[in-house]
Prior knowledge:
This protein has six helices and six strands, in the order βαβαββαβαβαα. The chain is an alpha/beta fold. Strands 1, 2, 3, 4, 5 and 6 form a six-stranded mixed sheet that branches. α1 (15-29) crosses α6 (164-187) and α2 (66-75) packs across α3.
Amino acid sequence: MKVLLINGSPHQEGCTYTALSEMAAQLEKRGVETEIFWIGNKPIRGCIDCKSCWGKGACVFDDDCANTCIQKIIAADGVVIGSPVYFGGIAGGLKCLLDRVFYDAKRLYSHKPAAAVVSCRRGGAGSTFDAINKYFTISSMPVVSSQYWNSVHGDRPEEVRADKEGMQTLRLAADNMAWLLRCREAAGVEPFEREVRVKTSFYKPEG
């Protein structure tokens, strides 16, 4: 079993990485392999809704880390997405990435347990946490919870490590992720067959 932890911060080993590392260490302790994937700090294209990815599970633009990220999620058994809070929301580069990573390929992530992790100095953790979870809940991905929302506070890695409650919350989220993965493995139950998706149009032609 393997969990992919996506570091959506432009800082490779900053506060978000510190939070994800706490979860990774706990997952490893429970016998789950982990990988922390840093999205980097170079420009990442936003989704342009060209629909060229439909049925392919890959973005037509292949000059950044989006398609690599898609393949890593497909290969993983569980996913954790971590972001710093920028102006009360997801970091810009990560938002651009997730819009493309989840546009068509989300159908390939069904039933993979997922968790959001947020790092902030002071405020905005709740709205960012909610925004990340929306990618999971539109993709039939079970959301892994903890004793509190998965967030840590601090302006530097040492301050994050000093957030005892936040770090404990992340360790419990990791334990719950490992438990859910082991339950799935033990049960060996395949997902139910999905209905063909129906879309409701609210457009009413004139006349």
